[in-house]
Fold:
Amino acid sequence: MAVATAVGLTSIPSDVSDVAARNDLTPAMHPLLAMTQEVFHECSMVLRVELDAENESEEHIVIEVDVTGRSVDDMLSAWNRWSEEFCRICPPENSVVFQIRLVRRA
Structure:
């Protein structure tokens, strides 16, 4: 498993870029990350590549968003907005490559 990397729009980890390229998702990366930062404003974001637990030949780009301090209603509203925008940005045939994970830090 790759080390998690805090990310900005200019600092996509190379392993994430490689997975995006192998899945023809390079053009979607910056719009997707920009949208995620807009929807989850003021939340830190980490990108990593993870192997599927059941099929290790499947790789996923995990977008982990720290929603510490956000209310459940705020998280749900942002999640719903993110899901709608994600469908607009990401080609449906490759959407399974991405996973979003909302986390709360103690």
